[in-house]
Design a protein that fits this description.
The complex is a heterodimer of chains A (241) and B (491).
Chain A lengths: L8 E4 L2 E4 L6 H7 L23 E4 L2 E4 L10 E3 L3 H17 L14 H8 L23 E3 L9 H9 L5 E4 L6 E4 L26 E3 L12 H4 L2 H9 L3
Parallel strand pairs in A: 1-5
Antiparallel strand pairs in A: 1-2, 3-4, 3-5, 6-9, 7-8
Chain B lengths: L14 E6 L8 E7 L5 E8 L4 H5 L8 H4 L8 H13 L9 H33 L10 H7 L1 H22 L8 E2 L2 E2 L5 H8 L2 H21 L1 H6 L6 E6 L11 E5 L5 E6 L4 H4 E4 L8 E4 L3 H4 L2 E2 L2 H7 L6 H12 L11 H21 L18 E8 L2 E9 L5 E7 L1 H4 L1 H16 L6 H14 L3 H5 L7 E6 L5 E7 L5
Parallel strand pairs in B: 6-11
Antiparallel strand pairs in B: 1-2, 1-15, 2-3, 4-5, 6-7, 7-8, 9-10, 12-13, 13-14, 15-16
Classes of the chains: A alpha+beta (241), B alpha+beta (491).
The complex binds iron/sulfur cluster (SF4), FE2/S2 (inorganic) cluster (FES) and nickel (II) ion.
The site of iron/sulfur cluster has 14 residues of chain A, from helix 4.
């Protein structure tokens, strides 16, 4: 028999969610099997709360759930129309801001932005292909960067700096000018230390950082979010499965 | 030779009849006719707005994205573009010879597309004209009318098309815009269960395909003169043929014959198409006019599509279709057939051939294999040619050492047939419109000729969707004299 004292809990959408001291609302909810949509969060990295898709209401006030620690007795609303509509608006805005053309994107089916969009009931078919104005970086022999799809989540920045210790990526510019850059004098990926086994290669939630020449080798229909809905994938990822 | 109706001498004195858009031809096209006061026809032109933005768009994109991206070119024949691009890009990844499984799956996908497209165009789009007459009541002259008068026939048309779509779904992964074919091969093969699912209805499909050929042959015999003469213009023919000279809609070498059937060139590898063909620009049309270089722009135009293919090959390698082909050839002993309406006959022979090929492919154990992708020494230039349902489709790319596309040139079947269609409608206008007040029935004659070629305006224009037909008669100053509007698409 365990004698440890029961973990504290908060309430989310009428359910008790246990948490560990200092754990964020989002991490605790996911660990308890309760999905909250998010984009810039990753269980292995410090959250930095930029996309706001994970926004919930805590005791009546809105907060980014990935950066807000849980407290005993918090009353959290997440799966309500008001919040889902707001999330949908944010995702739609991201779609229009970049050049996201799902039908010919090789990340289709593996893309978190697309999966969150579908989950929120966004019918993405209506986006016309915007002619890309952001040239690709194809200089690296094994890796292609398609900046058209970047949602500025900084996961690659964090992964490259903290795990790979290479700082290949950063964000530059402000506001609408903000964009991803490669840290090399030439600005080209070929002139960085990036290698295909880097953590930075596997964290991009969309289709920016791509292994070359793999494209459509896995059929659409047999991909991550084709096999399991994002609600399940996100929960499993939090549990480290 | 280009018809004198290509360009009128004093166009400002003439009144103008505009058929816009051409109904039951998907996409956007427009016909303008200039008439004088005696209603004599002076100029006839088919205008198709060809959109070339895509060729620029694809530049700078990674090559492996191309076979998926190009499907957006056309809502009608995406599979043809998907395969033509994959075939071209095989050269980039050095897949000189795709694996047996890849070849089998891609061929199956292609013949599924041929079957569904030919069924659509014959049963839905063309049969109303052929069964009821070109100037029959336009309210009945549609697929609903066919359903009412010939319910079995219409139902078969629908089921044939469905079957083709199933073949595509299983091989490409999705019914439309699949991703099955990739540079170097395919990303999945077919399971035994899927194969069995396709085998089940096959006996019916073959029987209906045979009936289809019989039906068009009878229509021809019943009205010999009309079918032989209507819009007939002599020209050269172009298609690919298999390396053995037999009909092959998926792969082969280019062959062209002149109007008498003499070979102009043969055995031309796809990569060398540019040495034999050129594209010409005319001031009044956005769409280019390709021609056989050795014949020059005035005489070098040609027909592509079923009628060209059936007569260009030495034989068809499947027995039922070959028998049907012999019957077609026997209808014009010793001379090539140039009649647009014979396209329908040839189309139905190809539909039967597609059903026979599908039967063979389904029996091939390679279909279920798991060796999916081939590779080899890297290439830079990629040319893929396929016989799409409507004719020869050329995809040409160059890819740099960083894997990005640096050049793209596409010649779609509608572009190949541009001049031939223009000449055919001039012939029809001269024969049927000259001296008559243009009525709906007479103007439909023009459309019948265009539909025989079965152009894919969607391919050429990216204009998806269907529009109602409006016929405008405008006087020499451009003022509207009369406007005939026919209700929406008759599909
Ligand atoms: S490249 Fe991907 S991981 Fe990096 S910031 Fe952009 S979206 Fe995020
Ligand atoms: S996931 Fe919380 S702000 Fe992006
Ligand atoms: Ni097309």
């Amino acid at each position: 028999m365990s004698t440890e004292k029961p973990r504290p809990t908060f309430q989310m959408d009428g359910h008790d969610v246990p948490f560990d001291e200092g754990q964020s609302i989002l991490a605790a909810a996911l660990a308890a099997g309760r999905y909250v949509p998010y984009l810039c969060y990753h269980p292995e990295f410090q959250p930095h709360g930029s996309c706001k898709v994970c926004t919930v209401k805590i005791n009546g006030r809105t907060h980014a759930s990935c950066t807000t620690p849980a407290h005993e007795g918090d009353v959290v609303e997440s799966n309500v129309d008001e919040l889902n509509d707001m999330r949908k608006g944010l995702v739609q805005f991201l779609f229009t801001e970049g050049n996201h053309f799902c039908p010919s994107c090789e990340a289709s089916g593996n893309c978190t932005l697309q999966a969150v969009g579908y989950d929120l009931g966004m019918t993405s078919a209506h986006y016309s292909p915007l002619f890309p104005d952001r040239p690709l970086d194809a200089s690296h022999p094994e890796v292609l960067l398609d900046f058209n799809r970047c949602i500025l989540c900084e996961l690659c920045v964090r992964a490259s700096a903290l795990v790979d210790k290479k700082s290949v990526f950063s964000l530059a510019g402000r506001g609408i000018q903000k964009h991803l850059v490669v840290n090399a004098e030439s600005g080209k990926l070929a002139d960085t230390e990036l290698s295909v086994d880097d953590k930075a290669m596997s964290v991009c939630p969309v289709g920016v950082i791509l292994r070359k020449r793999r494209g459509f080798q896995v059929p659409i229909g047999e991909r991550k979010y084709d096999e399991h809905p994002i609600r399940e994938v996100a929960v499993q990822k939090q549990k480290g499965e | 030779m280009t018809s004198p109706l290509d360009t009128a001498e004093n166009p400002e004195k003439l009144r103008r009849v505009v058929i816009e858009p051409v109904s039951r031809v998907e996409g956007h096209g427009k016909v303008t006719i200039l008439l004088d006061d005696q209603r004599k026809v002076h100029q006839v032109r088919l205008h198709i707005v060809e959109f070339r933005g895509f060729e620029r768009f694809i530049q700078g994109r990674p090559y492996w994205e191309v076979p998926v991206m190009v499907q957006r070119l056309c809502g009608i024949c995406p599979v043809s573009h998907h395969l033509a691009a994959s075939k071209a890009l095989d050269a980039i990844v050095g897949a000189r010879k795709p694996t047996a499984t890849a070849e089998c799956v891609r061929r199956l996908m292609h013949y599924g597309q041929i079957l569904q497209s030919h069924a659509l165009h014959f049963y839905h789009l063309a049969s109303p004209d052929l069964l009821f007459g070109f100037d029959s009541d336009p309210l009945k002259r549609n697929v609903v009318g066919v359903l009412a008068a010939y319910p079995d026939l219409a139902r078969r048309g629908i089921l044939l098309r469905k079957y083709g779509q199933e073949v595509i779904r299983i091989t490409a992964g999705k019914r439309i815009h699949g991703t099955g074919s990739i540079p170097g091969g395919v990303n999945k093969s077919v399971t035994a269960a899927e194969r069995d699912e396709l085998l089940r209805p096959l006996a019916d499909i073959l029987a209906w395909a045979r009936d289809g050929v019989r039906l068009v042959a009878e229509l021809h015999r019943a009205n010999r003169h009309l079918y032989d003469e209507f819009g007939t213009v002599r020209s050269s023919l172009l298609s690919i043929v298999g390396r053995d000279g037999k009909l092959d809609l998926y792969d082969g070498v280019l062959r062209a014959r002149d109007a008498d059937g003499k070979i102009i060139f043969d055995g031309v590898e796809p990569a060398d198409y540019g040495a034999e063909l050129r594209e010409n620009v005319r001031s009044w049309s956005y769409m280019k006019f390709p021609f056989i270089l050795s014949r020059g722009p005035a005489d070098g135009w040609y027909k592509v599509g079923p009628l060209a293919r059936i007569q260009n090959c030495d034989a068809i390698g499947t027995p039922l279709a070959e028998e049907a082909r012999q019957e077609l050839l026997a209808s014009s002993p010793g001379a090539l057939i140039h009649a647009p309406l014979a396209f329908h006959w040839a189309r139905m022979i190809e539909l039967l051939h597609a059903a026979e090929v599908i039967e063979r492919l389904l029996a091939d154990p390679a279909l279920l294999g798991d060796d999916l992708v081939a590779s080899g020494p890297r290439g830079r230039v990629a040319v893929g040619i396929i016989e799409a349902p409507r004719g020869t489709l050329i995809h040409h790319y160059e890819v740099d050492e960083h894997d990005l596309v640096t050049m793209c040139n596409l010649i779609v079947s509608t572009t190949h047939n541009n001049q031939a269609m223009n000449e055919a409608i001039r012939e029809v206008a001269r024969k049927y419109l000259d001296g008559h007040e243009p009525s709906e029935g007479l103007l439909n004659h023009i459309e019948v000729a265009i539909r025989a070629f079965d152009p894919c305006l969607s391919c050429a224009t990216h204009a998806l969707g269907k529009m109602p037909l409006a016929v405008e008669i405008v006087d020499a100053s451009g003022a509207l004299v009369e406007r005939l509007v026919r209700d929406g698409e008759r599909l």
